[in-house]
Description:
heterodimer, A: mainly alpha, two-stranded antiparallel sheet, 2 strands, B: 473 residues, mainly alpha, globular
Amino acid sequence: xxxxxxxxxxxxxxxxxxxxxxxxxxxxxxxxxxxxxxxxxxxxxxxxxxxxxxxxxxxxxxxxxxxxxxxxxxxxxxxxxxxxxxxxxxxxxxxxxxxxxxxxxxxxxxxxxxxxxxxxxxxxxxxxxxxxxxxxxxxxxxxxxxxxxxxxxxxxxxxxxxxxxxxxxxxxxxxxxxxxxxxxxxxxxxxxxxxxxxxxxxxxxxxxxxxxxxxxxxxxxxxxxxxxxxxxxxxxxxxxxxxxxxxxxxxxxxxxxxxxxxxxxxxxxxxxxxxxxxxxxxxxxxxxxxxxxxxxxxxxxxxxxxxxxxxxxxxxxxxxxxxxxxxxxxxxxxxxxxxxxxxxxxxxxxxxxxxxxxxxxxxxxxxxxxxxxxxxxxxxxxxxxxxxxxxxxxxxxxxxxxxxxxxxxxxxxxxxxxxxxxxxxxxxxxxxxxxxxxxxxxxxxxxxxxxxxxxxxxxxxxxxxxxxxxxxxxxxxxxxxxxxxxxxxxxxxxxxxxxxxxx
Amino acid sequence: xxxxxxxxxxxxxxxxxxxxxxxxxxxxxxxxxxxxxxxxxxxxxxxxxxxxxxxxxxxxxxxxxxxxxxxxxxxxxxxxxxxxxxxxxxxxxxxxxxxxxxxxxxxxxxxxxxxxxxxxxxxxxxxxxxxxxxxxxxxxxxxxxxxxxxxxxxxxxxxxxxxxxxxxxxxxxxxxxxxxxxxxxxxxxxxxxxxxxxxxxxxxxxxxxxxxxxxxxxxxxxxxxxxxxxxxxxxxxxxxxxxxxxxxxxxxxxxxxxxxxxxxxxxxxxxxxxxxxxxxxxxxxxxxxxxxxxxxxxxxxxxxxxxxxxxxxxxxxxxxxxxxxxxxxxxxxxxxxxxxxxxxxxxxxxxxxxxxxxxxxxxxxxxxxxxxxxxxxxxxxxxxxxxxxxxxxxxxxxxxxxxxxxxxxxxxxxxxxxxxxxxxxxxxxxxxxxxxxxxxxxxxxxxxxxxxxxxxxxxxxxxxxxxxxxxxx
Lengths: 503, 473
């Protein structure tokens, strides 16, 4: 229907690779290479972003069908094809990935001074993997992109990270790989079962109920690590703390969404009975995540670690929303994912601004920053409030919808989800008070410069997006409304069919 | 004339004799021209293999089918690339004697005979023709105690394995009445219970071949021989003999003994799982990169043998794909290891690679590609090798095998990552010498294969599918 014959999604996916290839062939001394690499990466990612805006503009909001579908035969005798397409669930994540990448590249402009070429190549490869993962409509293609993310991220953490970068990089890689290979077994089972790895076909395929629990847990192993859910979240604080600022932004902004996206794309539609059966388990894990990690966040002395734990809590809200199986809960989960992608990314950038100047992430190292850097103080306050869930800013809409959706299922779950807002206010306000307010206790802080034009350029789009999503969320909600409705409907139909079969 | 089916082997054998005769005459050292002649002879043989007709020859002792063609091409590839790796190394180490290239040629020939064996006697012939040159090349650096030790160790244990094979063959002959694979298949397809004596014979044959592929529990020689042998020889060890022995193992077990799979399947399952587990855990502590690659190769053999253990069409196809990809990951990795020199002296500790990401970005990038590929991370080729054997295991319902496989691949990712870590994250200890052009070409070629396999996997998959179908038809 739209853009038929023009492979917009493939272009979006692989354009960054072209940029990466160009950067690899830049010759000259280090300064020239670094400058060329930065500009090439920025322009590549900006062009990709513009293309994704076209995708968004031409996306038909009225249907739950996959759009911009591309299909090329790849391993025909195995029933595997290169199949790409987006629906309401995935299109905005493509947009989020392509929007955050230029911001990250801009944020690393001066922070990264060594091996700039390799850094930019890694980021562009990462962008390819992220976009490809959200656009893939074949499980094997999905898996290739899902796992492929590990390679550039491992290098980004390990080469450009902080003091304990090696430990963090290993932990990130091996933790995620362990989860993923179990998912691979599940994919292989479904492949054998249905004779194809085509996701839309599998959505219509009824998996035997007896096998669903196994498959569900295999997927859970992978997605729970990626989300991350309590108790397999421990890689996240390490990875966040050690990664360079832009790495943390992408990690929080996009990579964490891959797990939740997996639940929506695989677990719910392919395994409806098992999902319904184990929803209480997910609720318990999520509520524990919300309460526990929020309390842990309260005790942190490292700014990045605090925000990392807050991410785990926010993702707990998302998993609660997904497993409510109703329109409000799922829409809220998707909305929270997007909002969290923008807001937590921005919060890591805020930490990065201070880190670039002072080279410390310790909360106690700061104090009274708002007086010295008023513009920065305002931006930081803005995103702190957004993270807390202040009405009128992005996070509130999503969390509110999730709480409404959860109330329909079980008021106690809703109460657990609401804990996030209360405890979130505690630790975020505490963070902000200790960093931005109070007396200036360290004399060297007085010389700090306020935001530079480049930093304004980084924050402005994020501020606008947060405001827009908070004040007028309807355009965003409308994008996934049809897809979520279809998902809910199919889920209920499957459960009803199972119930009838049981009678 | 049925002997024309063996034309590739005959041509290669005659070429070897001619090169041997030609090498003796000149006074000067003729390693380089002799090596080029051998590579040329191998290429010619490869062309002949591709054009080979199917059928059996020499009274049913020799078979040519698409399975043998596929595996022969891999063996030849392994032999030719192994020799290419040796070109620069042998000159620098003072091992530039033309006999080396001829020995590689005959070992490759032995591998080809093994692949085409259709009788236990031909099997033995091929195995010995493969092994004898290998004993010599392992000890080729005769002034080096480690190299001599490697040769001797390999010889003693190899002789034992040959004995096991012969004893197993005699038992099989005694209990089944033939050594010919076709007649064995007929005798065993009657559906009756295999006699215990026959089972013992099969076990002996499996043990001998497991020794050659260095599968657990017959792997003990591998780390010492890999470490002691000259590095290009190690590379060769990891390729041609392994392909040939795995091909033979698959042919013996799935061909004549395919109908008594129940008798040997448990053994292969244990061998496969044991190799994967040992390969994953034992390599973690290794500091010497050649020893590390020895354990890594044990692990890879475990994955490949999954394809035999499941005893199915899909399994065999997975095995063939795995071996093809394994050869090309391995040769690239060894090209990097052979290139590891500092101040003209060969170094072989993992830590010697420290800082390579800065001092030689090209080599480091290819090495990283090979390591991620060996760890089985998509989108690199190594992932697809593992994918097809795992798929075969799942299709056959071997959940324990598949689970052990994926979990050990996570464990083994740890030590592959360590090499990436040493190259990129650690402080350098001084630059390595520039890699010679021949090695850079091998690295780039195999590296590109590993990167781009995903784009066009169909030819290898189709060839492997046809070869598997030919064996199980």
